[in-house]
Amino acid sequence: MSAPRFDVAVVGGGMVGAVLAVALSRADFSVALVEAERPAPFDDASDYDLRLSAIAPGPRRVLDNLGLWAHVEARRCCAFTGMKVWDAGGGPELFLEHTAVGLPELGHIVENALVVDAAWRALDRVELFCPARMAGLSRDADCARLALDDGRELTAALVVGAEGASSPVRAAAGIPTTGWGYGQRCTVGAVTPARHHRHIAWQRFTQTGPVAFLPLADGRCSLAWHADDALAAELAELDHDAFCARLTEASGGVLGEIERMDSRAAFPLKLLHAERYCDHRVALAGDAAHVLHPMAGQGVNLGLLDVAELVAALEAGRAVGRDAGDTRYLRRYQRARMAENLMMMGATDALKRVYGSSNPLARRLREMAVGAASNLAPIRQLMIHHAVGLSGDGPRLLR
């Protein structure tokens, strides 16, 4: 029996991969999705997942246009209307608010698992290969062949690696990466502060990394504490009360005393960028293409923007009779996303280094930059427009 033939085979069924599979199927491409493990159905009665994202209004439109956002919004997510950023060492504060750009909110804090759940419910036009892992990739002139670890094989005009930072598709295609570790870990979990978050995202920069509180629908906050490895190891050894006391101190008591910290975990921080997003019969999306420091909360947003641009490029190719793996249109996707992703990666890397420096000149420069953004409305509006993913014209899924 011959192996099935698809327009696109997506490897990886996480947030970006599953949403991409839905988007391509809704655009009338034949799609296969390869995923090692079917995600568990989202449980509203469970506590908040440790992995959350700040979905900006622009990327949210991708989910909305695919009919996924209604499922997310009906379960649990929390809109935030403002963002306050300040330096533990003093100096001006920066407050960004939704009214500056006429938006009802700056974004929503959403559990990654909830977006995955919404996408998997919408895979009715996608052929699932799950549980299965990619065991091999070969490419001919007119197709790519995926060998799976369960012995099955499938062919497609295009294979998309959307399976994360350690992408097997990227490795099999021989696409090099550039990157480095930051020597930091991010401690995450849900915290209960004495005062309500008021639907504001709070971020205090310290020399060892920023401490961020992201608002949750039940009044708690999702913690993202970026700390140098030595401090992160020290924090991991603290008992509950000692950790809450250290967190109250590190946050400057902005929401009062931290009364409770539920389950917590920590993960290492790094920067990684693929030298190209496409190769013969292969494309990369999401963390398979780019991983950046999470202080600006843009990782998932960039992945959803990848989805919108890749679908648009494949649709443009199909309109002139090209198949989904046509290199000319894959390069159109690469051009559209690489420059913007590199700009965001450069900005977050610079922020990390400037705010992590004790050099007096670096401190003065950041005070001047924050002061300018605080006092000049046009600069503040430009920052918000870019942060929420509304910085310019976009493809169909962003309109």
From TrEMBL:
GO terms for molecular function: FAD binding; monooxygenase activity; oxidoreductase activity, acting on paired donors, with incorporation or reduction of molecular oxygen. Keywords: FAD, Flavoprotein, Monooxygenase, Oxidoreductase. It comes from the Bacteria. Its cofactor is FAD. GO terms for cellular component: ubiquinone biosynthesis complex. Residues 6-338 form the FAD-binding domain. The keyword Oxidoreductase applies. One of its GO terms (biological process) is ubiquinone biosynthetic process. Pathway: Cofactor biosynthesis; ubiquinone biosynthesis. Pfam families: FAD_binding_3. The keyword Secreted does not apply. Belongs to the UbiH/COQ6 family. Component of the Ubi complex metabolon, which regroups five ubiquinone biosynthesis proteins (UbiE, UbiF, UbiG, UbiH and UbiI) and two accessory factors (UbiK and the lipid-binding protein UbiJ). This is 2-octaprenyl-3-methyl-6-methoxy-1,4-benzoquinol hydroxylase.
